[in-house]
Every structure is written in C-alpha cells, then in structure tokens.
Amino acid sequence: MDDYLAKPVELHELAKKLDLWLPIVRPQVPLDRSVLESLTGGDVAAEREILRDFRRVNEGDAAMLQRAVDGSNIPEVITASHRIKGASKMIGATALAAVCEQIERASRADDFASSPIQHRSLSGRTAAAKPLLRRWTHGP
User: Fold this and answer.
1) The domain spanning residue 41 has which CATH number?
2) With 0-12 CB in 10 A as exposed, 13-18 as middle and 19+ as buried, what is 47?
3) What pLDDT does residue 4 have?
4) What is this structure's pTM?
C-alpha cells in the first residue's frame, strides 16, 4: 500500500488523495495554433504545409512506435516517442508531446510496463488531432 487516509475522512483530504492517485485529465486542445503562427508569421499556406509534413512524418513514427511497443523494443520505443514528442512540440500539439514524453521517460527508466498504457493514451490523442489536422491541411 502506497498511501492511506485515517478515519474519519474529511472530504477535502479525500479529494486531494483521489486527485493525487487518480487525476482527472482535462480535455486539451489538440493544437495550439499560436505556436504555428509564431513559426509562420500567420501565413496560413505555410501553416498548412507544416501540418501536412507533420501528418506524413507522424504517421510513420506512430507506426514505428506501435511496432516497437508490440515487440518490446525499448530503444526503438525511445527513438519513436522522442521523434513524435519533438515534432509535436514544434507545431503546438502539447498534449501529444506530453504523452510521448511520458512514454520516453518510462522507457528510459526501464519501466516498460507503463509504456503500453501511455501508448494507448497517445493513440487517443493522435486520433483526436487527426480531424483537425485534416481540416487545417485541406482548408475549410
């Protein structure tokens, strides 16, 4: 057992412990457009081109990560998650970058048991971002 609360339990103490061990993940915007604007000076065509490149490269990196997780190939998990993390940060996909950072850290710490869990989170975040990327890269 890692933690406990003694009876009688106060609600605010219970809430703190629950938040510590089972935090509620708040929905995040898949992409912070201000990051792209700072890169392109607001040039929408340039933003679309960057997002197209991100989508193309990220699909390959995500496939590499999936194969690495499936094969328990820790060096490959580290490489793929690091690549996705860096590219995601560059375009403002901070939630996706954060999940990749967690995967990378867990893999570097040889905590591979948590990497597949994080990978499922990564898959969910990637799926949430795909419609936005498609809309922004193909126009309204």
Assistant:
1) 1.20.120.160
2) buried
3) 80
4) 0.65
